[in-house]
Amino acid sequence: MKKHLLIFTICFSSFLFAQNQVKIDSLENALGKAKNDSVKVNLLTNLFQEYMRFDIEKAKTYNDKQFDLARKTKDDYVFSMAHYMKGFYYHYVSEFDSGVINMRRALSYAKKAKSQEMIVSANNRLGSLYIIMSENDSALYYINKTIDLSKKYNDEVNFANAHLEKGNYFLKNNKGEEALKNYLVVDSVLSNGKHNGNHILIASQLNIANLYVNLKNYDKAEFYCEKAKKTAEAAGNIEHVINSETLFGRIALYRKDYKTADEKFKKVLEFHTASKNKFREADALFLLGLLNGEQNKTKEAIAYYEKAVSIRREIGDVPGMNVALQNLGAMYFTEKNYPESHKYYAEALETARMISDLDGEVNSLRHLAKINYQTQNYKAAAEFYQEYFPLKDSLTNNLNFQKVEELETKYQTAQKEQQIELLSAENQLGKQKRKNQFTIFASLIGLLAIIGLALTFAYRNKLKTAEKIKELNQMKSRFFANISHEFRTPLTLIKSPLQTLQAELSDENQQKQLSLIDKNSDRMLELVNQLLELSKIDSGKLQLILKEGEIGSFLKSISEPFEYRAQEKGLKFSSKVEIPEGKFIYDKDVIEKIVTNLLSNAVKYSPENEEVKFYSNIENENLKIKVSNSGTKLKNKDLPKLFERFHQTDEKNEGFGIGLALIKELVDLYKGNIETTIKDEVLTFSVSLPLTQVESENILIQNSTENIESIPASEAETNGEQAVLLIVDDNAEIRNVVKNIFSDNYRILEAEDGVSALKLAQKEIPDCIISDVMMPKMDGFEFTKSIKENELTSFIPVILLTAKTSDEARLESLKNEADTFLTKPFHNEILKESVHRLITERKKLQERYSRELILKPVDIVINSVDEKFLGKLGVIMENQLSNTGFSTDDFASELGMSRMQLHRKLKSLLNVSTTEFIRNERLKAAAELMKKGNKNVSEIAYTVGFNDVSYFSKCFKDLYNVTPSEYISNA
Fold it and tell me: Cys-Cys link to 232, which of 241, 305, 495, 604 (CB 3.0-4.6 A)?
């Protein structure tokens, strides 16, 4: 039976090849007779496609003829077709960059020629190329564009083809369920058979079968494989019939039905050998090698692998040759033919390095080390292991010396065994006792010397490697810090014009593209910020800034936006914060980064209809945070490496970037701990952070604003305070954007509506306010009016941000005394300069005050409320001038303010503390009295409220740079 099947296969394959040759001869004859250029284009295209099946170099010559015809006719459609076929050729030979270039040119010419079919086809092929190149955003963009265009032109074949590529996209990104949905769309759309897209339908059916093979559902896999075979037979597509047979063979192999698998693979091999398709022939030989290796028929497997390597080498298929070389090496290793195994693994190592195949390089090094270990060549084995481990752990640079030490131990054991043999010989040869003793002693010395040298060599290597790793980490840290800073400027320049375009353009397709740019620039900015944080931690420059405050409401505000994100993705979201009211010591920024990254990852990596949970409480003076998400694909073996930077569970899965690595570093900095568990496909991160004041060089403890009021004026009222900026916006993301702009140089306060902002402004007295216009409870106009009419806050500059660009909105802002009006999207530098200018102008007023000999509010203040306030100050000082017991608390009480509010108001308005203001006004009054010349220094000092003449003289000289006596003499 088997013999008859083989004879049938040979005859069948020969017949198919002959049939192909007849078709090619017919096309070439037609081309020789054709006079119409459009007919020639179609014939050249058909010949190109036929030859691509078995002779790609011959196919390329027909593509060259297409270009010759295009140059002759100068026809855009012909150029489009020529570039399309050239792009297809580069796609086939794995030169993907060249493929993209030619497909883009094909698309450009197709648009000029207004060829709907070519526009759709070029878009689809670009999507396919970008999938292979792992440029996911570009791939998805071109595939979706193909789907939209296909709908528009009622082109069901290209519509199905686009869904086929979309399925391939999801399959490559390890989203099998989404891939299956798209493949089934193809099966549904093209099932009527009234089209010319059978090759698309077959490919989709084969992909569905492959998906079920991966799921080990071999019954369904066979069902769809049979469908693909029948479709191919009906369409006369023999190549896909053979592809179906290949898949049938693989299914049989996985089911351990070796007989069926052998029949199928040999049938496939005979076909591809007869049709002279070297690529497929090598594939079939490789599968037969795999099959025989599975059955422990190593000699047969070796024969097939050697043929596969020979063909791969002949056609220049280096990746395919690399895999076959590794399998060939493995078979010889099983046969314990170590020289041959070493030979093939050595060649595999070279080819892996040639194509930058890290997995292949690691596998080859590991086996070369094993081979040398088996042949007791321990030094060579150690050298291979020393290459293997750093490469294997290249992401963490964690060199593993376990194997090297094991080899040293093995070497020492071998030497000790040799010593024992020598001692036995001594006992047996009593007559030569002294001579043997000397020999043993000499041997021992020699062996100890060798062992000592080996250990010294290994130890020095360890030290050198550790030093190199340290240097590399420092260089990496500096590099990431520098490049991250460089990225921030162009990102800023991308964001602002992008936001402008989004506001101006109404075309839906353009908005989609802009949205894609916006989303990825945000993502890049997030990564840049994370890199900067990690570089600060690596360099030891990041400090915890602990401050007292409410933590329960803070955590709720962080988690709330993720509820909306989860709903958008079709996830269930639950949040529970069981933290009592009261003040706790914590670092707001670090906790926000930890919670945000954990929740962001949970939402990002949870499949649809799963659940994300956030829970927080306080136990034993520790803040406990738990974030969990169901439906995880991770396994317990993946947990130890989750916090490695850019860790990937395998090459098919998306990596975790640096978010989790940053979380781990921040938790360690906080002297806390983080644990990860998986139970019933639920991934849980549990974080514990101390809420006590831990003493450390990386921890800075700040007093809260409430505590500032209770400290002495001499400590609180300094000139070195950081400017305070209040950001008011109901959109948390906008607040974060503005916060990021100013956080390096300002102390930031935030409020989500006008009512809470007004209370905060009265309490904290900021140096400047940036507010949105459209807000709940109290809008920006009303908020500005309230700020300017309140004596406590009237002097504070207010910048209004709004999406409204009308003159009415501008007029309304001016009526409410806003200092600056900026439209969204704003330019970051303009906003920064506006804040700087307003604060600088306030400083000019402060300098003017410091030059005035006595307070003259009418001359130096233009705001009527501030004028009245300074007038009040003048009246109070006039009444209390001679009162030596008049304190800052008394001053604040007379004005109806708290001492802190008065301090912040005077600091922002005149750049002096309350104590300095009282003292300066007394000294200025004293200077006026000195000008009149009717009192001596002691009398003047007591008159203006000083009860110590020497202290008065010191203060006077500090302000005017002369003593009171010198001032009177010069008056």
Answer: 241
Helix (H, G, I), strand (E, B) or coil at 479: helix
Residues forming CATH 3.40.50.2300 domain(s) in the chain: 721-829
The CATH classification of domain 721-829, taken from the options 3.80.30.20, 3.40.50.720, 3.90.1150.10, 3.40.50.2300 = 3.40.50.2300
When the pLDDT of each residue in the chain is averaged and rounded to a whole number, the result is 76
**509 burial type by CB count under 10 A (0-12 exposed, 13-18 middle, 19+ buried):** exposed
> In three state form, how does the secondary structure of 108-146 look?
HHHHHHCCHHHHHHHHHHHHHHHHHCCCHHHHHHHHHHH
- What does the alpha-carbon distance between residue 218 and residue 222 come to, in Å, rounded to a whole number? 6
> For 363-373, what is the mean pLDDT?
87
DSSP labels, 42-90: HHHHHHHHHHTTT-HHHHHHHHHHHHHHHHHHT-HHHHHHHHHHHHHHH
Q: How far apart, in whole angstroms, are the C-alpha atoms of residue 237 and residue 854?
A: 101
Contact by Cβ (8 Å): 270, 10? yes
In the chain, CATH 1.10.10.60 covers 852-971
Query: Alpha-carbon distance 918 to 930, whole Å?
Result: 18
Judged on CB neighbours under 10 Å (0-12, 13-18, 19+), 67 is: middle
Q: Is the pTM of this model over 0.70?
A: no
Instruction: Find tokens 């493949």 and name the residue.
Output: 183
Using CA atoms, how far apart are residues 155 and 190, in angstroms rounded to an integer?
Answer: 11
How far apart CA 354 and CA 362 sit, in angstroms, is 13
Q: Which amino acid is at 414?
A: A
Q: pLDDT band for 684, please (50, 70, 90 cuts).
A: very high
Integer Cα distance of 616 and 777 in angstroms: 30
AA letter at 957: K
CATH of 277-375, one of 1.20.58.100, 1.25.40.10, 3.30.1330.10, 3.40.50.740: 1.25.40.10
pLDDT for 218 equals 87
| Secondary structure class of 930 (helix, strand, coil) | helix
Enclosing H/E stretch for 965: helix 964-970
Burial environment of residue 207 by CB neighbours within 10 A (0 to 12, 13 to 18, 19 or more) = buried
What CATH architecture does domain 852-971 belong to?
Answer: Orthogonal Bundle (1.10)
* Signed CA dihedral, 750, 756, 759, 762: sign only: positive
pLDDT category, 688, cuts 50, 70, 90? Answer: very high
The 3-state DSSP class for residue 746 equals: coil
**C-alpha dihedral (462, 463, 468, 471), degrees to nearest 10:** 140
- 481 near 531, Cβ under 8 Å? yes
Contact 85, 66 (CB under 8 A): yes
> DSSP E strands: which ranges in 792-936?
798-802, 820-823
Looking at the predicted structure, is the pLDDT value of residue 893 above 50?
yes
Domain with CATH 3.30.565.10 in the chain: 543-656+675-702
Mean pLDDT of 779-790: 86
For 896-932, the pLDDT digits (tens) are 777 777 777 777 667 777 888 888 888 888 888 887 7
For 82-132, write each residue's pLDDT tens digit: 888 888 888 877 788 888 888 889 888 989 988 888 898 888 888 888 888
Q: What percentage of the chain exceeds 90 in pLDDT?
A: 7
Instruction: Report whether pLDDT(47) > 60.
Output: yes
Q: How many angstroms separate the CA atoms of 287 and 248, rounded?
A: 12
Q: Which residues contact 643 (CB under 8 A, 6 or more apart)?
A: 660, 661, 663, 664, 674
For CATH 1.25.40.10, list the domain ranges present in the chain. 277-375
User: What does the buried/exposed string (b/e) look like for 585-616 if buried means 16 or more CB atoms within 10 Å of the residue's CB?
Assistant: bbbeebbebbbbbbbebbbebbbeebbbbbbb
